[in-house]
Structure formats: C-alpha cells, structure tokens
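If you are new to this repository, start here. Below is one unmodified record pulled from the training split, so you can see the exact layout before writing a loader.
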Amino acid sequence: MGFMQKNVNIFILLLVLVLAGAIAASSAYYQTTFDKLTGKYDNTAVNLSQCRSDLDNYRFNLNKTLSSLNTTAQDIRRYDELYSTKATELQSTQQNLNETASTLQETRIELQEESALKSKYKNDYEDQVEIAHGLEEQNAILTSQKAQLESTVISYRSKLESADACIDTFLEDYDAGLTQAMKDAADSCKK
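And here is the target side for that same chain:
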C-alpha cells in the first residue's frame, strides 16, 4: 500500500496539476475567445450604433422628404388649381381675342369701305373742282365776251338810233312828197 499511497498522491498531484493546467489552458482559451467575442461585440455594438445613427439620419431624411413631398403635393394641387384658373382665363381671353379679331375684321372692312367711299368722294370733289375751274374760265371768257358784245350792242344801238333818226328824217321827207293817192294805195296794200 505504500507505493500506492505514495504514488496515488503523486498521481493525484499530477492529476490536480493536469486539471489545473487544463483549467488554466481552458481559461486562457476561453479568455482569448471571450476577448475575441468581446471585440466582435464591441464592433457589432459600434456597427449597431452606426446603423442606429444612419437609421436616425434616414428617418430624419425620410421625414424631411415626406414633409417636402407633402409640401410638393400641396404645391402641385395649388398649381393644378392655378392651371385650371389660368386655363379658364386663357379660354376667356382667347374668346375675347376672337371676338376682338372679328370686330377688328369688321372694322377693317368698314374702314376699307369708308376709305373707298372717301377716295370716290375725293375724286368726285377733284372732278368738280376741275369743272368749277373750267366753268370759272368759261365764265371769265363769257364775261369778257359779254362785255365786248354789250359794247358792240351799244355801238350798234347808237348806229341804229342814228340810222332810225336818218330813216325817220328820210321818211318824213318822203312822206311829205307823197300824194294822197299814193298813201291810199300803200294803205290798201297793207290790209
């Protein structure tokens, strides 16, 4: 028994040492593994923190984009209403423009007719002015001829009066020389 006892102690000691070594090795192994896992956890935590930060940024940008989208949708509705209003105004303006163009065309036609009428009246007036000038010239000529004729008539009247006086004197002288029988014969011829 002695050897066993002696050897058992050594065996137990060796067993305890092996166990202690195994525990120390497994502790070292687990410590290394734990450190690696802790590093991975820290990296994962940092990545998770970064993801949360990115998620918050994306959430903030999403909210901002949704707000901008809502504002844009409101702007689009406002622009649709404005477009509808402007389209109605454009139709009204187009209708007014068409009516104005029609009125302008009618006015243009009336203006052309009035212009043609004015041109005709102007031509008629110029013709009448030419006729009036011609008549004035003829009037001047006729007035000159009338004056000449009046002077000729006056001259002939004085000659006629002078001839009448001469004839009266001649007839008186002739009548005095006629006998009663000649006068009776002349009177019977007149009847």
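Two things worth knowing about this chain: The chain has one domain: 2-151. The chain has two helices and no strands.
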